[in-house]
Specification:
CATH architecture of the largest domain in chain A: 3-Layer(aba) Sandwich
Oligomer: homodimer
Largest sheet of chain A: 6 strands, mixed
Strand order of the largest sheet of chain A: 2-1-3-8-7-6
Structural class of chain A: alpha/beta
Number of domains of chain A: 3
Chain lengths: ~425, ~425
């Protein structure tokens, strides 16, 4: 079975937005053994969509389209697809009712152009959108399939696995082996280093395909086992997971889709521990990530973004002579910040960051990217030093990740020492 | 003149690498008034490259290909293009000499497969590669042009403006219109509302194209004017900008690429004002965005993520009876938070947020998405109430944007009152 991808939107062909859906879809298809033959992007133009779609179907079995499902006049994908196959557009009452309910629930003013999002070509099967207003659809045409889903990446990422893949599996059962998938999330190794550590594993012999996906600053390894027999696929996958685990060890923080903040949240809640944070170079990003988790108020007591020296002294009780002698960016200050916030907030744990995010503020002894993170509990404080090498935004991200990773490993009971 | 883009590489169609060249090339073309009709990605396959290239040339005037120019066996773009037009491959002695010199200079061992990079289809004009080994070429075929340049983004980014554009200008002099562009960033209106407000502007009559780009929670409007005369293009653009400004008014926060945090940073620095932030529902995201700007330490003194009631009372001096009577999520608490952090930090301004990000914690009187943001200066405190309707992450994002927008409008001297 050959797959074509058609991403639709003027914002793509005028270069305003880089298409990230195509590579996401291609990866998901490829991991399941369905080769992508072609990826194409075109503008929101009636005839173009129609013509290109017909062309793609001459040499593929299924075309997955994204984009152009909004309520405004320039979003014409559904109408163009209907026209391409001479099908009338029909109102789907269930979708219309659902749309109107969403509008009512959120106190949005209903305007008639929104009804457009409840119209589908005759014969289409609706694909629900769990995270947005525009539903998608699957349209069987002449033993082939056309899918249309929204182009908003967060919606594409949900609707492809939840809505598109099941239909593909149903229509092309001969292409289907049992597949089972495991994501392994790591931090602390470069992509090349992950690649090198896994080089001696014979994934092919295990019937497992492996993908490496850098999601800055993390590296994710995705293993997919395919076999006609479901139990065998699961067994092969487990073997591959064990091999990978043995080689990546403590750099692994999650088996599955959970992020570091979720893993930490679950541990803190389970152990009934509370946390406070004092940030300098990360500027609030540690607190922001921790509070992305629903229910974080149970364990996250407060976060202080002590950007000025004065705030470090006044709120955290960092002695001014420590800052004068060692600098605000130093092991000593990081330790005092973690201890200070823990004491002030009366929490079990205190986590801190201090560093130079850049691009200015570096010196020969402490260049841009110099970062200290520290973690204090009742008995002791541990501190780690890093020398990052990114731009300001990414230095903040990787410093936040390093602080959270330190906390995660502590909560997992892994040996911690100053570095 | 219509442009097609063909990116070539197995790493693209298996999803391992996201194509960034296409959007780069499209943007450069579009800004020069040369519309990109289509972007296509295919694998390193002889027949595929040949067939798709012919297809693209049926409805475009020039096709720009990237990728597949390396020395290894899987890089076959040059040979496939030659075959597509029945042309022999000829050795270019100047390029061969240059290649061998580069190898000698960098002490690389010369192997014969590298000579492949000095072979070009008969009639091709070589495009020099100032940053890598693989030269590209332009091939005129039947009043059309095919370009082939490397797919390494840093090489594409040099060779497009330096090698491709001059040839395009030479072959299609009549196509050159002057193009000028304006981005207008807004917050506070839905995409549909922006669309509706601008519906009566006749952009076409002004020679201006308009694009709407939702970048949650903002909506960006991009206007592009094209005209053979540069002054006329600028005049038409200004007319369109004026019309849009009149209709979107205070929802506009930026004319250009700057974000809200940059606009605010520039205003605070210019007015020599300092700022502190007290956050509850936004969980550190306000501080994080403000500190994304290099040099923010000049005006951003501290941020407090007062997640617990205790921290609001202890650090910000919010009276406990205010929290008991009105709740932590209330106008009264928001106001006291902004005033409290301003006083504690000794800054000119204090900004606060409190609300229910969800998905839990809502009540009939205060459903999920209830948010208050407040801003205090020496003389007064203003507070705004919002009822958002997103998931937790997006409620945090939109609440942060609302707080920053309030601050931005204040700094612009716009009338502010409680809402």
């Amino acid at each position: 079975m050959k797959i074509g991808i058609l991403t639709i939107g003027n914002e793509l062909i005028n270069g305003r937005i880089a298409d990230t859906n195509s590579s996401f879809i291609a990866r998901e298809m490829n991991l399941r053994g369905w080769p992508v033959e072609i990826m194409m992007s075109v503008g929101d133009d009636f005839d173009t969509i129609k013509t290109r779609l017909h062309y793609l179907l001459t040499f593929t079995d299924a075309v997955i389209c994204t984009g152009g499902l909004g309520p405004t006049a320039d979003d014409i994908t559904t109408a163009a697809v209907a026209k391409a196959f001479g099908l009338p557009l029909l109102m789907n009452d269930a979708v219309l009712t659902d749309l109107k309910e969403k509008f009512a629930r959120y106190h949005l003013r209903w305007t008639d152009n929104n009804a457009k999002q409840a119209m589908f070509p005759q014969g289409a099967q609706v694909i629900a959108n769990p995270v947005g207003s525009a539903a998608g659809f699957a349209l069987p045409v002449k033993n082939k399939l056309v899918f249309v889903i929204p182009g908003v990446p967060s919606e594409t990422r949900r609707m492809l696995p939840e809505g598109v893949l099941p239909v593909l599996h149903r229509y092309f059962p001969q292409a289907v082996a049992h597949t089972t998938k495991q994501t392994i999330k790591t931090f602390g190794l470069s992509e090349a280093a992950v690649d090198e550590r896994l080089a001696d594993i014979h994934f092919g012999a295990l019937g497992v395909s492996v993908g490496f996906y850098p999601v800055f600053p993390e590296n994710h390894v995705v293993l997919i086992a395919s076999d006609p027999d479901a139990a065998q696929a699961q067994k092969n996958l487990q073997k591959a997971v064990d091999e990978v685990s043995a080689r990546l060890g403590d750099c692994i923080f999650s088996y599955g889709e959970s992020g570091l903040e979720e893993m930490i949240g679950a541990s803190l809640a389970e152990k009934k521990l509370t946390l406070s944070v004092a940030e300098s170079c990360t500027g609030g990003l540690i607190a922001n990530r921790l509070t992305d988790i629903s229910g974080s108020s149970v364990y996250f007591e407060r976060g202080l973004v002590t950007y000025s020296n004065e705030s470090k002294i006044q709120l955290l009780g960092v002695p001014s002579d420590i800052i004068e002698k060692h600098g605000a960016v130093s092991k000593e200050t990081a330790r005092r910040m973690a201890e200070g916030v823990r004491k002030l907030a009366g929490t079990d744990l205190g986590l801190s960051s201090t560093g130079i995010a850049g691009p200015t503020g570096g010196s020969p002894e402490k260049p841009v990217g110099t970062v200290y993170v520290a973690l204090a509990d009742t008995n002791r404080t541990i501190c780690r030093h890093f020398a990052f090498r990114w731009d300001r935004i990414r230095n903040k991200q990787v410093s936040t990740e390093a602080a959270l990773m330190m906390l995660h490993q502590y909560l997992q009971g892994k040996t911690q020492h100053d570095e």
